[in-house]
Amino acid sequence: MRPLAERLTPACETHNIDLPGHGHSPLPTAALDIPDHARLVADYIRTKMQHGVQAGPVTLIGHSNGGRIGLYMASQPEYQSLFERLVLISPSGITPIRGTRFRVKRLAARTLRAPARVLPRGAAEFFNDWITHSLVWKAIGSSDYNALTGVMRETFVKAVNFHVDDMISQISCPVLVLWGDGDTDVSLRQMKILEERIPDCGLVILPGAGHYGHLDALDTVVAACESMIC
Q1: 197: domain CATH number?
Q2: pTM of the predicted model, to two decimals?
Q3: By residue range, what is the domain housing residue 116?
């Protein structure tokens, strides 16, 4: 997100947040779910951004899982006053349609872990650790999952299994969604659900861009952000 933040800085004050385990932030001591991330982001906004007499709601710009966190926060009464608007780039969080390949992998994962259910606790922990480091387990895992270890792998699993479908109709601030038509991680169907269920939501399609629309179509994303912020 840094290229986008740098382009926006002359027009407004920007904060490029590294979530736990990313960038310059240390690893969390335990796996975090989306509500955990929301509490951390809310604390940052209240202590680092909303300072002074003129403090007010902010614009959250989120990509992928950052978009999921933003959607969750803007749908929750305790956080809604923090946001003036959302700009989301290929946000995740809407339940995807799973194909046969995914279902086969999920069944294989459950089958591989099954013996741990009948083993004593210590043996079960050893068995699960061995399984998750095996070649078979890596073969059924996604590239994102396999790139992670330990607490960050657990955090990733909690994030991808957290969906906001039933929450987004409660979002009251304006939302702009940008999606690249070459994105293979989130679908146009998912973006359309956001557009249909969020009361004030617009969708912009970025021709030729992939999942990282803020890198593939930076000028367009900057212009879209500025039109929302300025």
Answers
A1: 3.40.50.1820
A2: 0.80
A3: 100-154
Mark which of 136, 154, 172 sits at the end of a domain: 154
Chain segment 99-123, per-residue pLDDT in tens: 656 555 565 556 656 675 666 766 6
Cα 155 off chain centre by: 11
pLDDT tens per residue, range 22-50: 888 999 999 999 999 999 999 999 888 76
How many domains does the chain fold into? Answer: 2
Same domain, 179 and 210: yes
Residues 9 and 110 in one domain: no
The set of long-range contacts for 32-39, using a CB threshold of 8 Å and a minimum separation of 24, is 32/155, 32/158, 33/155, 33/158, 33/159, 33/162, 34/68, 34/69, 34/72, 34/158, 34/159, 34/162, 35/72, 37/69, 37/159, 38/69, 38/72, 38/73, 38/76, 38/79
Residues 6+ apart with CB under 8 A from 215: 3
Looking up tokens 């194909």 gives: 99
One-character DSSP codes across 122-190 = HHHHHHHHHHHTSHHHHHHS-HHHHT--HHHHHHHHHHHT---TTTGGG--S-EEEEEETT-SSS-HHH
Whether residues 180 and 117 fall in one domain = no
